[in-house]
Design goal:
heterodimer; A: mainly alpha; 13 helices; B: mainly alpha; 10 helices; 73% helix
């Protein structure tokens, strides 16, 4: 087990290194001149030369590469051209909003996904099964931005149940910064009515993103339930006279949960992807919006920084899933 | 094993399953619109008509008009052709590259396999949409670059699949026989291994199609893909959202087009996966 973890960590380091290299080369082919983004178009030649030297663009490519890797290893991702802040600080500022959104949507995805998966398996081949699978596939087929817009039309414009955009009304003051997580900070400040408002802001974006996750969770829960339900010990449990709900939830689901946990872990990673579109629709001040605006303005350091950061998060989630899976399933051999 | 599936059994299962049949019908409709769309479209997709902007759906404009007075039905029909074309080119490009890399890795094994698969791992370490956005931003925003950007993130699926297939095939007796009779490695690779990878790659391609169309539309929506006035569905939804909720049609109809298209591929893909994994039936 230890050897496996060590090897897995070694690969992760290798992959991260590859990620940094690949990102560097993608960014290098940007045809737009990063200097032009900072200086006005009528800047004198000397000023341009000076700025190039300041950015290190006059050095040979391998020197630039070395500096870049060295910078990242020291937690320095450069300074964003657009926000004029260190990219690392930007990432730390925008990350909590995305994390809140991702956690809430994962919760929604798990609750809906598990229940539909169990119902589908138990009522296999009948209407609830078809309906459950249909709902899941439908969610997978909706572009996140379209789901978001439809929910906004229905629940914000027509029914007026939920607020339109953002994490909280812009005219209210944010709670003092403690953790950076808005809802947590508001709780710490003891402003409970604002917590309720924030939760109402969270509902639509979280559902938009959560619906995407239900599909894979329903599918895997259903299939592993179908595998477990014919087992002898389920029959035994029934013969003992246990209630069906208890047999299904306690005996079957508990044993069917392992593959589901893997899929849930993998969903955590891909939530980042859906977050880009969801945050754009709901003006959610998180990493996704930061990605879009820095990419659109070809903000070279921000593009590189945020891409490496996200790839790191993504690989880290996958690593945790792998290790967790090995821990939960002793049958797996680490050879 | 994917390769051993007989196409006749395959089509029988697909036609028996109501959900995948629905998917097939949706895909067929999409293809029909992509082919005949421009011939039956009532208007020109680019001609603006400011006097009739943001008109409600009516007899003259079944899906209404957008903020520049262009007919939305016409633009949705043209969009079908754009989406199908992009998705097919992406599939061909990424399928070819992925399959070649996969069979080379699987067949030669050892160091080559290790290097190629680690490179694949690096690509898999990025969320696909983010990587595609980075590439599209780097190359410049245009429809052609969308194809490159999405293919850049899609080939890994096929590489892994083809590698597995090549690993299985290279142990077969007839490959051994070909080698004994003096065939070169490259000949064995292209004559004996490659053909057996083609049907699994096509099957996997069908499953991947929905995801590809979603990424293309997503890129268009956030502004990295096709640029206005191209009637690409993602771009149209993005344009239309500024006129919500009054002129809902400008955004809803292109969105529904994306949804039904992706739904078609996902329903079919779901049926295909059930066939490959008989426990799920």
């Amino acid at each position: 087990m230890i050897a496996y973890i060590v090897r897995r960590l070694f690969w992760m380091v290798f992959v991260i290194f590859g990620v940094m290299t690949l990102t560097f080369f993608i960014a290098r082919v940007i045809p737009a001149d990063p200097v032009a983004a900072v200086l006005p178009s009528n800047a004198p030649d000397e000023a341009i030369e000076k700025e190039r030297a300041r950015m290190g663009l006059d050095k040979p490519i391998w020197v630039q590469y070395g500096r870049y890797i060295n910078g990242i290893l020291h937690g320095d991702l450069g300074v964003s051209i657009r926000t004029r802040q260190p990219v690392m600080e930007d990432l730390i500022r925008y990350f909590p909003a995305t994390a809140e959104l991702a956690l809430a949507s994962l919760l929604i995805g798990i609750v809906i996904g598990l229940s539909l998966g169990v119902v589908s398996a138990v009522k296999r081949g009948r209407i609830p099964d078809h309906a459950g699978r249909m709902f899941a596939i439908w969610g997978l087929s909706m572009p996140a931005f379209f789901t978001g817009l439809m929910l906004v039309i229905l629940f914000s414009h027509i029914l007026r149940w939920f607020p339109l955009l953002g994490q909280m009304p812009a005219y209210l003051r944010r709670p003092p910064h403690v953790t950076g997580f808005l809802i947590l900070d508001t709780m710490i400040a003891g402003n409970w009515s604002l917590v309720v408002t924030e939760l109402r802001h969270l509902v639509l974006p979280a559902f938009t993103l959560g619906w995407l996750s239900t599909a894979s969770i329903v599918r895997i829960t259903r299939s592993s339930m179908l595998e477990v339900l014919p087992e002898e010990y389920i029959k035994t449990a029934r013969m003992k006279g246990l209630r069906e709900s208890r047999v299904v939830l306690k005996h079957a689901l508990k044993n069917a949960l392992l593959p589901t946990i893997t899929v849930i872990g993998l969903r955590v990673a891909s939530l980042l992807e859906g977050a880009v579109l969801t945050e754009t629709v709901f003006s959610w001040p998180g990493l996704g919006r930061y990605v879009v605006s820095s990419f659109l303005s070809i903000d070279f350091p921000a593009v590189v920084g945020v891409t490496v950061f996200i790839a790191f998060l993504y690989s880290f989630c996958n690593l945790i899933v792998d290790l967790l899976y090995g821990y939960l399933n002793p049958k797996i051999r680490y050879t | 094993m994917l390769g051993s599936i007989r196409w006749r059994d395959f089509s029988r299962h697909i036609l028996k399953n109501r959900l995948s049949l629905t998917g097939l019908v949706l895909i067929f409709a999409l293809l029909v619109f992509a082919v005949i769309g421009p011939y039956v479209a009532p208007y020109d997709p680019y001609t603006t008509d400011p006097i009739n902007k943001l008109e409600d759906p009516s007899k003259a404009h079944i899906f209404g008009t957008d903020n520049l007075g262009r007919d939305i039905l016409t633009r949705v029909l043209y969009g079908a052709r754009i989406s199908v074309t992009i998705a097919v080119i992406v599939l061909v490009v990424s399928g070819t590259i992925g399959t070649l890399i996969g069979i080379i890795a699987g067949y030669f094994g050892g160091g080559i396999d290790n290097i190629l698969m680690r490179i694949t791992d690096v690509f898999l370490a990025f969320p696909r949409l983010i990587l595609a956005m980075a590439v599209a931003a780097a190359l410049g925003r245009s429809l052609n670059n969308v194809v490159l950007a999405v293919a850049f993130t899609t080939w890994t699926i096929f590489a892994r699949l083809a590698r597995g297939q090549a690993l299985a095939v290279k142990e077969e007796d007839y490959v051994e026989a070909a080698r004994a009779s003096g065939a070169s490695s490259w000949r064995i690779l292209f004559v004996h291994v490659l053909p057996l990878c083609i049907s699994p790659v096509i099957i996997q391609g069908t499953i991947a199609m929905g995801g590809i169309i979603l990424i293309v539309a997503g890129l268009g929506f956030v502004g990295f893909g096709a640029q206005p006035p191209t009637p690409e569905w993602g771009v149209m939804v993005s344009d239309g959202r500024n006129y919500l909720p009054t002129a809902w049609w400008a955004c809803v109809f292109p969105g529904l087009a994306i949804m039904f298209t992706v739904l078609g591929f996902n329903l079919l893909g779901d049926g295909v996966r059930d066939i490959l994994d008989p426990r799920m039936r």
